[in-house]
Amino acid sequence: MISALGGAPLFLILPTEQYVPVHQFLVSRFDPFMPISLCTGLVADAILAFSAPGQAARILAGMAAGLLIVAVAVSVTKNVPVNRWVARLDPSALPEDFDRVDPRVRWRNWNLVRTALAVAALLANVCVVAAML
User: Fold this and answer.
1) Is the pTM of this model over 0.70?
2) Domain extent listing, the chain
3) What single string gives the DSSP state of each residue in the chain?
4) pLDDT single digits (tens) 71-108
């Protein structure tokens, strides 16, 4: 959520020469945390999909796991390549065509997709808990 509510909007308003170092700083802190969080939730949901009491809870947990699989796929195929590209940039020597290849809007859009998927998985997990009561 922090990326959707704070990071992405910040990236969009920063001048290019400030955007690259800020992106490098923030992403280096979120990258270790986000994959662990997503994968932990995915494993927990997969376990619940097979072991939760009640068919409704198992179906909802399977839905949550599916949503997190798609969120991981978006991360790996869309956001991570941008993060790696920006990480390799020298903020003082940006490519001459940076205005043309600037990834901020694309990164923000895919981040919003990933965030929506994770929030939907969270809501499904709330329903899992309710179904198990």
Assistant:
1) yes
2) 2-132
3) -HIIIIIHHHHHHS-HHHHHHHHHHHHHHHHHHHHHHHHHHHHHHHHHHHHSSSHHHHHHHHHHHHHHHHHHHHIIIIIHHHHHHHHH--TTS--TTHHHH--HHHHHHHHHHHHHHHHHHHHHHHHHHHHH-
4) 999 999 999 999 999 999 999 999 999 999 999 999 99
